[in-house]
């Protein structure tokens, strides 16, 4: 077909091509739209390695967006995946079965661990660490996240959502829960043999450049809730800073143990922490923000009015997943290719520099890490007391009810 059109244009002139004038008018707009879309979709991951026999913990896999795309590709490559989810129910069980059928990989499992619940995070980490010898762990892929509606100026104010521990929900999901999981799993990560390439990949967001760092109150427990966006961006920024410190501690601890045991093989550089900025995607979070949590606005504003522009300027979940897959597969993070020991930042399938100056402040990162660990421990103790008090009250009520029923 194209050859016939080109032949006609060359031999008989463009006037002989049907609808040529209309095509000539529309073509520049189509070309411009295609160019913008090609730019906004971002680059593709070109690296691939076999993951047979490798074991990964994955959060955010059931999002039906980026997380699901990453999980699907990893399963196809043969990885054993343990998906952490808020609840193991009929839907999540069916989801795993469908994933097994689609990939032919039976080594896919689901475990309950609500990242927003510090107690559940500790329970999961305890179960994981209680194995002897230590369980194999080739990496942790964190793609879970929460972004609350920011409110419509002059019409509605952002409503503070709280986790079971009383933390602001975004701070709990995006920062406290992920930090707690990484901190508790340090023994498992450091126990991996030196020839095992361990990658801790954590998704972040470009909005972290608008965040604040609260060193004295890292969980933002005493901060007034004026802006949902401020809590979201700050949670991402603080997570990135503490992960920089996590990289240092993992490397230094492995080196220290290696020196004590006179084991020159262990440098700690086989463990790499990578922050990944996948870009702006048409995700559940974006839909929630654009619609302000309203079904009517979702149908009218997002699906009808804005969707053509969003399709043009934002990525699909699969395109965002390319950055996670790049961080997982690229040989740049293998020990032999590393040029320094710092945590890495990936955007558009390439290693880039962090934008904020705080990422160069080692002392700030160390203090933020220590204070976050301190506040989480204090909050855990407080919630443990509350659970015990509630349990005793329920037992007392049950005894009184039993006594009354016996009298009758």
UniProtKB/TrEMBL annotation:
Residues 391-408 have a biased composition (Basic and acidic residues). GO terms for molecular function: oxidoreductase activity. It comes from the Eukaryota. The chain crosses the membrane at residues 293-313. Keywords: Membrane, Oxidoreductase, Transmembrane, Transmembrane helix. Belongs to the short-chain dehydrogenases/reductases (SDR) family. PANTHER family: RETINOL DEHYDROGENASE, RETINOL DEHYDROGENASE 14. This is Similar to Saccharomyces cerevisiae YNL181W Putative oxidoreductase. The lineage of its organism: Eukaryota, Fungi, Dikarya, Ascomycota, Saccharomycotina.
